[in-house]
Amino acid sequence: RRPAISPDGNWFAWQTNAGGGKDEIYLARMDGSDARNITKAKGNDGHPWFSRNGKWIVFESDRGGQWEIWRIHLESGKQSQLTRGGKNYVSTRARM
Fold first, then answer.
1. How far apart are CA 88 and CA 49, in angstroms?
2. 31: alpha, beta or left, given left = phi > 0 and alpha = psi -120 to 50?
3. Residues 6 or more apart from 41 whose CB is under 8 A from it?
4. What is this structure's pTM?
5. Strand order in the sheet with 45-50
6. How far apart are alpha carbons 58 and 48 in whole angstroms?
7. For every residue of the chain, which 3-state class applies, written as one string?
8. CA distance 27 to 50
9. Shortest CA distance to 14 belongs to which of 29, 3, 24?
10. Cα gap 34→26, rounded to integer Å
11. Which of 35, 11, 12 is closest to 1 using CA atoms?
12. Which of 55, 46, 60, 62 is nearest to 78 (CA)?
């Protein structure tokens, strides 16, 4: 669900719960090769989108107990939380 295509058109990311009930973000080449789970964290991860330079995927996650915006650096795999809004921040997914 919710596919996103990299700016260079070589990669796509999507959200799925096929691997065990919680949502994760997967990344693959456009031909479907090299598919892999890139988030691998407790909680749900979804709504991926690529940064303009294609080096990051930004996504929503409830891994900290509430929905916030996170990012993952595609080369290193480092993940970091971008928002800490508490009750001041409600993601689009949380409103659905």
1. 23
2. alpha
3. 61, 63, 79
4. 0.84
5. 45-50, 56-61, 68-73, 79-81
6. 6
7. CCCEECCCCCEEEEEECCCCCCCEEEEEECCCCCCEECCCCCCCEEEEEECCCCCEEEEEECCCCCCEEEEEECCCCCEEECCCCHHHCCCCCCCC
8. 11
9. 3
10. 10
11. 12
12. 55
For 51-88, letters b (16+ CB in 10 Å) and e give eeeeebbebbbbbeebbbbbbbebeeeebeeeeeeeee
Q: For residue 60, which amino acid is it?
A: E
Take residue 86 and report the two structure tokens written for it.
């508490």
Note down pLDDT in tens along the chain; length 96 residues: 889 999 999 999 999 998 778 999 999 999 999 999 999 888 999 999 999 999 999 999 999 888 899 999 999 999 999 988 765 555 454 443
